[in-house]
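Check this.
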Amino acid sequence: MNILIVGLGLMGGSYAMGLTQKGHKVYACDINTESIEYAKYNKLIVDGSTDASTYIPNMDMIIIGLYPNHIVDFLKKNSKLFKKGQIITDLCGIKTYFLEEAQRYCGEAEYISHHPMAGREKSGVVHSNIEMFKKANFLITPTEKNTDYAIEMMKALGLDLEFGRISVVTPEHHDAIIAYTSQLTHAIAVSLVNADTDVDSKNFVGDSYRDLTRIAKINEELWSELFFDNKEALLKKIGDFERELDEIKAALANGDKELLKKKFISSTNHRKEME
């Protein structure tokens, strides 16, 4: 296929790397010419430009790797260039905030969204790495407007990139669950790091702290958008977490060792079910 990737960041670059290795002809659009040149030099893409209109009419699939608030702007700008038979998708971490509007501006093409549950704490095309996709989850979020063909194309995309598990869910269910598995975990990691008041803490860091706080090294522009665009779902999950933490706090304050053990047993069993 001829595939255009819009946005050559970490994810866009990694998609380009994986899809090129599978034999697709990958092109890219990015505002940063250095990112384009890097991708061309390292043979991640066939060619690239700061202007997507050069490539859009000849593409079979367009993958948008932009921040949530920029996706619809891109579609509005290029809506007259999209053609029937094209698949347009994004890899954004939230869906219901913009998806209905996005489908209105895809012209004659079909817009279907997905979410790769993978990432790294580093950013930029220079850190592209397809290894993070292996064993990771790949979520497809069709609406009632999408065809079976588009869903199958998304499944094929996930397989090409070697994701471990591919699931099809509604955009609403996606946002409700992602508030827990992704956004809440980032909120906890950020809070844990920011709660540190001891200058000597760095000398006591072990694997548990490293594992819990890896994602605290966070892109403030992207994640502030994701938090606010899924605000209601995230606030509910923060409340659920606060109640659980309060129960542990109460068990400690009241000397209730049995309740603490029950919490540990429950978390152990639940975590095993997720493996």
The chain is about 50% helix and 15% strand. Residues 171-194 form the longest helix (24 residues).
